[in-house]
Amino acid sequence: MKKLFVLLALGCFSAPILASEAKLENIQVDTGLPAIKRGANTLMDVCHGCHTLKYISYRNLTSLGIDKKKIDEWRGDLPLDSSLTGLMSDDAAMDSFGKLPPDLSLMAKARDGEENYVYSYLVGYYVTPEGVTGNHIFPETKMPDPLGISDTTDAAKRSEIQGTARDVVSFLVWAADPHEQERHRMGHYVIVYLFILTALLYGVKKQIWSRLK
Amino acid sequence: MKGKIIKWIDQRFPLTSFVKSELTGYPTPRNLSYWWNFGFLAGFVLVLQIATGIFLAMHYKADISLSFDSIQHIMRDVNYGWLLRYMHSTGASAFFLVIYIHMARTLYYGSYRAPRELMWWTGQGLLLLLMATAFMGYLLPWGQMSFWGATVITNLFRATPYFGDQIVIWLRGDYTVGDATLTRFFALHYLFPFLIIAGVVVHLVALHTVRSSNPSGIDLADKDNIPFHPYFTSKDFYGLGVFLIVYSIFVFYFPNLLIEPANNIPANPLQTPTHIVPEWYFLPFYAILRSVPNLVGGVVAMALSVMVFSFMPYLDRSRIPGGAQYRPWYRAMFYFFVIDMMVLGYVGYVPPTDESIVAGQIATFFYFALFTSLPLISKKEEQWLVKRGLPPAVEALIAGEAREKGKLPYRRRKGDIS
Predict the structure, then answer these.
(1) How large is the ipTM?
(2) How many domains does chain A have?
(3) Is the pLDDT of residue B49 over 90?
(4) pTM for the whole structure
(5) Which CATH number goes with the domain that contains B204?
(6) Contact criterion met (CB < 8 Å) for A16 and B343
(7) Which pLDDT belongs to residue B15?
(8) Of B249, B276, B303, which marks where a domain is finished?
(9) Shortest Cα–Cα distance, A180 to chain B (Å)
């Protein structure tokens, strides 16, 4: 009875707690190389103007398989081992936004909702009837609508922007954990190996215990 | 040649006899269920944590300006550094999971009862060491949750009478959690696992003195004990295989499931996260802390909630053997306790609201009510069971084992059932 009461109480209380969180749009991240490359393009054109990616170097982009010429264009005089330091100085950022734009290396893992948060945030811009731009996911944001979705009304145009946002998320997911795909590949072997080993160990155990009367 | 070397050693050190009496030939109850695998698994995870931890320490830098970067260096640049780090971070959760199941088994089967009190108490000491080690290890990545978790928990020592403020500064090495805190936590995080090893040795010496408990709850006669090797080595290794499958699924596919996203943001003393949560294994105790509105009361309640397990050998007054399976009232209390723990864990996880606080207070009340009512309930249950008669299976078992050994199987006290 007591059990039931606590469970019932919790059932009633948990609903409003969860409802207060902002609604994020869940996406299936495309982890394929073409999507990551497209995302890298957009990121270097749009985001890298202000944001850094301190744990990603130009060499990492080369080994990812991005065209060498393009990388040379992006890095200019910087060495290949330089990290993506952004193009805006800290002082200029403080002048424009009053705070430093966050580093993006781990952004796909650093917010509740992770990649879904980043996507929902990027496409979460809107314009009020008074002409003010806001964001549903992060209302206090200082970042101007980077992909221009807030003043786009054409449905085809909007879905194109959403596609671009997905690509950026694909790149950021790679940047946050570059070994993810290697990890999954290795995991397949490890799990198969362990299943066979465990089956054999079970056989050994059964055989040994069968000696007992 | 091999025989000669062994003989040479045996003349100087009891190698063969030790291995025979404590490992290969060690008599073990044949009726142990798979719930008895978790002690071995805990030992395995301890070794795994130490092994991965030593290699991580070779690449980690305990300095607030470098530590976050050094974790990313391990994750990105060190060969298989991501594997080491994910094995270690997942291993911490695996350790608590295994230990909590090990404790739940002890509670369910009454393995804490005489003569195994010292096993239970050394286990309690090991749990405290494990909690301290995990807490200090969590500061090392120097993320937002590391910093604020350590700030909140060290701050609790302010509740100490008279010296509260001084003790907090002494623990942190500074007025706030900072570089001095990080370096000392790193040093102690490296030391404590070796203290745990020493504690495990004491735990095992005690085990080999009193022998393993078993699901029947009475000490078995010699004919029902079988040598540890090969029976339990094979059983433990099979259990290890199953454990490794579950563990590897987390390491390779969901390693970030138990890492708070906020810990991927470097620590920032000027910005409090909207919601500070500890790791899952501390959540029930954290919920108890938050359920008491006053700091001192909350800290006392939380400390008691962990330490109250020690009193189990005295709180449980029943002499009915066999743990919970022959004791319906105690069994109901056990399952209620497990559910109450989960409720507390949930309450500890969600942001505090009026409703969650009330739910936490109700669950906290039941948590302590279960322990404090146990002496009375267990006594009444014993009387009820005796009046009703023990299940025939238990009666037969007790009689059979007693005949075998020529004495009563459990400690006699005044008023014992004869």
Answers:
(1) 0.90
(2) 2
(3) yes
(4) 0.91
(5) 1.20.810.10
(6) no
(7) 94
(8) B276
(9) 9
